[in-house]
Structure formats: C-alpha cells, structure tokens
Amino acid sequence: MAIIAVAGRKGGVGKSTIIGNLAGEFAGTGRTVAVLDADPQHSLAAWGEQGDGLLARSVEKVADAAAIRAQARKAEKAADVVLIDTPPGNPDAVYQAALAADLLLLPCGPSPLDLFALKEPLSLALEARAERRSKKPRIRFVPSKVLMTTNLGRGLATSLKDMGRKVLPAIGQRVVVAEAVSAGLTLAEYAPASPAREEFRELAKAVNKILER
User: Fold this and answer.
1) What CATH code is carried by the domain that includes residue 38?
2) What is the pLDDT of residues 70-122, one digit of tens each?
3) In total, how many domains does the chain have?
4) Secondary structure letter of residue 205 according to DSSP
5) Is 176 exposed, middle or buried, given 0-12, 13-18 or 19+ CB atoms closer than 10 A?
6) What is the rounded CA–CA span in Å between residue 85 and residue 78?
7) Cis omega before residue 137 (within 30°)?
8) How far apart are CA 179 and CA 104, in angstroms?
C-alpha cells in the first residue's frame, strides 16, 4: 500500500496530468488505484467524466483540506496505490497531504517563477516530516511541461538538483496529453505507444523504485 501526493503553489504545472497518468501506469501493472481529487476545481473528476476509462471509475472528490488524511487512509484499505491531487495556493491542503503521503511529488515548469514557487510546498513537506518524526514523505521534483528545444527546458533538471532534492524523469509538453484528457482517458489507454506515454511509464518506474525501498 502506498500514498502518493502531488503538490505545488502555482497552477498549470501539470499536477493533475501527472496524477491521472501515474494512475494509468500503476493500474496497467495490475494494481488497484484510488485517485483523490482535492482541488475545488475537480479537474481530475472532470477528466474522468469525459470518457469511460480508468479515471471514470477511480476518482473520488475530497470536500476540503481537513478531509484529505482521513479519506486517504480509508482509500488505502481498498487500493494498492492512493494518489492525491492537491489544489494550487492552498498550504493547508498541501500540509494535510504531506502528513498522509509516503511520497510527495513537486512538479516544476521551466520558468524561473515555477522554481520560486517550489519553496513553499517544499517547506510544508519538511514541516510535515518533523511533525511525523519520520523521513516521510519522501520528496522528489518532477520537471514538467518541458520543451527540450529551449535553454530553460534543457537546464531545468540541473536547476532543480541545485535546490538539493532528487529529480525524477521529466514530462514534456505534448499535444497528445491534452487529447487524452478530452477523451476522458489516460495516455496508457489513449495512446499507449506514444512518446508521451513512455515518459509517464518511466516516471512510474522511478516512483515505484522509491516506494519499494
């Protein structure tokens, strides 16, 4: 059993995309997944409602930040992997997710503003560790919406490493990701042979290695 949360102060860095497609990758290995949508906009729930795929069956809405931990613990009893999508600009939700999670992923886009915005969720995760008196949640950065044809995109992983945390495989900016959302499907369902899907497969493998330690 594992609980994975994704957090960030800014919107638009790919949190929901990462959660949804990681759910697809874990389900593809035979594990049961529960996806908790704690963002008041409920983007993941809306994604699932566009089709009849995995997310239509596995997304649960979370009413507010105070409900995150209890709902995650309840979901953990029935699922192999619980994934939590937190809202931007809500420190309490990030903190509650960090108190519940085994692993906290912090996506970051290539803009310097994205890098600046990492400081708050990183600080909250470290506070949660202190409260738990634990090394959990483990914390990893995820380069997100990366364009490798740009200097900022190519240098993002190095910039993140300079912040003192380990960096997981990058997720690129690709049109097929949005197409999959429009179809209500994960990339594993919509475009299983695509380069975009391969990126999420590699990210899931890296996440799984952390969880198995």
Assistant:
1) 3.40.50.300
2) 999 999 999 999 999 999 989 999 999 999 999 999 998 777 777 788 889 99
3) 1
4) H
5) middle
6) 18
7) yes
8) 27
